[in-house]
Amino acid sequence: MDAAVLFSGGKDSALAALSLDRFYDVTLVTGTFGITDDWRHARRAADRLDYPFRTVDLDPAVADDAVDRMRADGYPRNGIQRVHEHALERVAGLDVTAVADGTRRDDRVPTVDRSTARSLEDRRGVDYLAPLAGVGRGAVDRLVDAHLTVRAGPSEALPRADYEAELRAHLADRAGPDAVASVFPAHEQTVVRGRHPATDGDTPK
Amino acid sequence: MDAAVLFSGGKDSALAALSLDRFYDVTLVTGTFGITDDWRHARRAADRLDYPFRTVDLDPAVADDAVDRMRADGYPRNGIQRVHEHALERVAGLDVTAVADGTRRDDRVPTVDRSTARSLEDRRGVDYLAPLAGVGRGAVDRLVDAHLTVRAGPSEALPRADYEAELRAHLADRAGPDAVASVFPAHEQTVVRGRHPATDGDTPK
Questions:
Q1: Cβ within 8 Å, pair B19-A19
Q2: How many folded domains does chain A comprise?
Q3: Which residues in chain B have their CB less than 8 angstroms from residue A23's CB?
Q4: Residue B31: which domain range?
Q5: Tell me, what is one Gene Ontology molecular-function annotation carried by this entry (chains A, B) (predicted)?
Q6: Cα distance from B5 to chain A (closest Cα, Å)?
Q7: Please, which of A170, A202, B112, B192 could form a disulfide with B14 given CB 3.0 to 4.6 Å?
Q8: Residue of A106, A135, A204 with shortest CB distance to B21
Q9: pLDDT in tens, A20-70
Q10: Which of A18, A106, A129 lies nearest to residue B134, judging by beta carbons?
Q11: Using one digit for the tens of pLDDT, what is the confidence trace for B162-193?
């Protein structure tokens, strides 16, 4: 069975992929609006994790809507949620048994509630999997420490490929760089640099 | 890292164990009130899955409360939820990094919501893991078909070791056999008979 895991290059989606590869042939998939080429950072992380990688095109109108929403709200949460749901729809269009993401129990955004998940499954004929939906922050951190090497830093400096980089660029284009600092609070992100040697080659434990 | 997986002998808790054994040394744990020896069915399933097994004692007063609740409600849901939370507390008293169960996204009972999970983690100093919390019914069925051999049948006939068998016996003792049929709706259960050969020996895919 094939699973497409929505992948940002960060630790959560990488850990989701590790959780699933016992059961599925995993491909890491990054959505891109074509605004920047930040998806290349995800490809590099996927290579280091030794998973197949591909991109899916996202609809630029969704980026416009998301940025409008963020400017109106003054914070990014609802815009990011909108983009995440759009990306899941696009990934569900691939020929796979399951689509997955790295959403965690303790996340505030993005979240995929039960009715959204069931709607995606019923309409698209795929399984939606959130292997970290029942895993808290502490356990995620302990598993990442044990199985991945990561680099942490402030969002604006770290070469990641989640929607945030493209949405930041789009917001700066439309409203100037000050809008970015006003909408996006400062926070730390991670980028995956590889697996720990003990977990190379898919050998459990 | 050690994880204690609350285990009934059924497919959900078995699949939860498979999901976790890439990351943790898994022990399957069954709670018993001492009302029946149905825990032996779980030990047999654990042997067939080739995981270590142990029991934890549950408080008989909780069985009394649960049965009273079920009789008052006329259905088992709230009583089973109470027993599940008590069992998680007891398992969290073991010397492990994590406690886990087989609760699924589409389950109505038992469920462990975010605040209950965080409370358990904060008070007990363990991680609580629900590896199937982000997995729907269809995906669970497909994964079980691929990785486990199971036997299905009506609850009252299948030799399982979840709380239901002990609670049915306790209810029959206190209120007669007719009370059992009135509180517990007829439903199918599964009992795990082993792994598929392809997944023996912990070899992924």
A1: yes
A2: 1
A3: 19, 143, 146-147, 205
A4: 2-202
A5: hydrolase activity
A6: 14
A7: B192
A8: A204
A9: 999 999 999 999 999 999 999 999 999 999 999 999 999 999 999 999 999
A10: A129
A11: 788 899 999 999 999 899 989 988 888 889 99
Cross-chain CB nearest to A139 (options B127, B133, B135): B127
**Smallest Cα–Cα separation from B12: which of B197, B186, B189, B205?**
B189
The interface pTM score, or ipTM, of the predicted complex is 0.91
Q: Which residue has the tokens 């409203």?
A: A175
Question: What distance in Å separates the CA atoms of residue A13 and residue A91, rounded to the nearest whole number?
Answer: 14
- CATH number of the domain at B22, please: 3.40.50.620
SS3 label, residue B176: coil
Does the distance separating the beta carbons of A131 and B131 come in below 8 Å? yes
Q: pLDDT tens across A118-168, in order?
A: 999 999 999 999 999 999 999 999 999 999 999 988 877 777 767 888 999
In sequence order, which residues have a C-beta less than 8 Å from that of residue B136 and are 6 or more positions away?
Answer: A117, A118, A121, A127, A128, B104, B105, B106
Name the CA dihedral angle for A58, A64, A65, A71, rounded to a multiple of 10 degrees: 130
pLDDT at A164: 84
| Gyration radius (Cα) of chain A, Å | 16
Q: Which residues, other chains included, contact A33 with Cβ-Cβ below 8 Å and sequence gap of 6+?
A: A57, A58, A59, A60, A62, A63, A166, A170
Please tell me the total number of residues recorded for chain B in this structure. 205
Kind of pairing between the strands at B188-195 and B148-154: antiparallel
Taking a C-beta distance cutoff of 8 angstroms, is the pair A98, A4 a contact?
yes
Q: Number of residue pairs across A and B with CB atoms under 8 Å?
A: 102
Phi, psi of A29 (to 5 degrees): -130, 130
